[in-house]
Amino acid sequence: KTRQLVESAMLAAVTGLAYTVGNLLKLESYLAYILPLPVVLSALRSGPVPAVKTLTVTCLLLLILMGPVRATTYLLVYGVLSLSLAVCWALRLPWVVSIPLGALARIGGYLAYIALSSWVTNENLLMLMLNNVYALLDQLSALLGTTGSPPLLAVAIVLCSLLFVNSIMYVALSHVLYAIMLRGMGLELHGAPKSLERFIAGLPTT
C-alpha cells in the first residue's frame, strides 16, 4: 500500500505539472495524448482503485495550483477519459469494447465541459456550435442546389456524429500509441487485434 500511495502521488504530481505547464505555455493541444497516461500507468501497475486515487490527487493538486475552473476542466476533458481507459485496460477488455467506451466517456466529458464553459462565460456555447453546423449544412445545400433549410434534428445528428467520429479516432490512436509506449516501459496492453499485436511486437524497444 505504501508503494501504491507513493506511485499515485508521483504520477499525480507529474500530471499536474504537465497540465499546468501546458496551460501556461499554450501547449495543451500537444500534450493531449500524454495527459491521460499517468492514470493509465497507475491502473496497469496496481489496479483501478489506485488509478482513482491518482486522478483524485491530480484534481486536488490542480485545484490548489490553478483554481476550481481549471481543475474541473482537467477532470472533464482528460480525467473522465483517462479513468475509463484505465479501468478498461486494467480489466483487459478487448479494444472493440474499450475504444467505443473511451469515445463515449470523452464525448460525455466534453459536453459537460461545454456546459461548464457556457456557465462561466454566460453564453450558450452548445447553441453556437449548432448554429455553426447549421450554417455549414445550409452552404452544402446551396452547393448541391437543394432548397430549404435543414431541420434542427438533422443538425444535432450531424454534430453528434462528428463528435463521435472524432472521439473514436482520438481514442483509437491513443490505444496504438499507448500500446507502443507501454511496451517500452515493460508493460503490456491486452485486447489488441492480433495483427496489431504482431506489428507492435516487431518494433524495437530501444
Which key features would you list for this structure?
single chain, 206 residues, mainly alpha, 79% helix, globular, transmembrane, DUF2232, transmembrane helix, membrane
Report how far apart the termini are: 32 Å
Query: How helical, in percent, are the residues?
Result: over 70%
Order of helices and strands: HHHHHHHH
The number of helical elements comes to 8
DSSP summary, beta strand count = 0
Task: Explain the overall architecture.
The chain is mainly alpha-helical. It has one domain (2-201). The chain has helices at 2-24, 37-46, 48-66, 68-90, 95-121, 125-144, 152-184, 194-201. Helix 2 packs across helix 4 and helix 6 crosses helix 7. The protein is globular and about 65 Å long. The chain starts with a helix and ends in a 5-residue tail after the last helix. InterPro entries: DUF2232 (IPR018710). Pfam families: DUF2232.
Short description:
With 206 residues, this protein is mainly α. It has helices at residues 2-24, 37-46, 48-66, 68-90, 95-121, 125-144, 152-184, 194-201.
Q: Layout of SSEs?
A:
Layout: H1 2-24, H2 37-46, H3 48-66, H4 68-90, H5 95-121, H6 125-144, H7 152-184, H8 194-201
Helix pairs in contact: 1-2, 1-3, 2-3, 2-4, 3-4, 4-5, 5-7, 6-7
